[in-house]
Write a structure and sequence with these properties.
One of its GO terms (molecular function) is acyltransferase activity, transferring groups other than amino-acyl groups. The chain is of the alpha+beta class and about 170 residues long. The protein is about 30% helix and about 35% strand. Strands 1-2-3-4-5-7-6 form a 7-stranded mixed sheet. Strand 2 (about 60-65) and strand 3 form a beta hairpin.
């Protein structure tokens, strides 16, 4: 397995991984119609997003052979400051991490997290945070095994008209 920076050429495979991961991990937490309506191909907007990556955000992909089996996005915690204020001491954020369900529990998620946490540290972002859907035991187990714990913060996100409660986890100091 190889971890590398994502490119616009990875967009379709990244979206396929995300869609498969959401359908497997969030069944019962997210409305079935929303999961069924997830795209299987990247939009032009997403390809452009990968092409114009900003300095304070990055995406990594995990490859096995010629295939993308997972990806993760990292940035600063936008709840704390805007881009102009982001810098050393600003909390880092695991924006997303998805591994195709066929490759769960085989090290791709941990390898992506290792690369992303290292990148966040290089930017001076600390502590590292992530938002998870409340009730997602798959997500909770993954992050807790990595060293995250709940810090008590809560918010909701909107997804296709549904309000989804989320909980914030923070990476414990090592």
């Amino acid at each position: 397995m190889r971890i590398r920076t994502a490119t616009p050429a990875d967009a379709d495979e990244m979206v396929q991984v995300r869609t498969a991961s959401w359908r497997a991990a969030y069944e019962g937490l997210v409305d079935a119609d929303v999961l069924a309506g997830l795209p299987d191909e990247a939009s032009e907007r997403y390809v452009r997003y990968l092409a114009r990556r900003r300095p304070l955000e990055t995406e990594f992909v995990a490859e096995k052979g010629p295939y993308v089996i997972g990806f993760a996005s990292f940035t600063w915690d936008r709840d704390e400051t805007d881009e102009d204020g982001a810098g050393p001491g600003t909390p880092g954020l695991v924006q997303s991490i998805y591994v195709h369900p066929d490759h769960w529990s085989r090290g791709a998620g941990r390898a992506l997290m290792n690369q992303g946490v290292r990148w966040l540290a290089e930017q001076g972002f600390a502590p590292v945070r992530v938002w998870i859907m409340e009730g997602s035991e798959i997500s909770r187990r993954f992050y807790e095994r990595y060293g995250f714990e709940s810090d008590g913060a809560r918010k909701t996100m909107e997804l296709s008209g549904a309000t989804i409660p989320c909980e914030r986890l923070t990476l414990k100091e090592s």
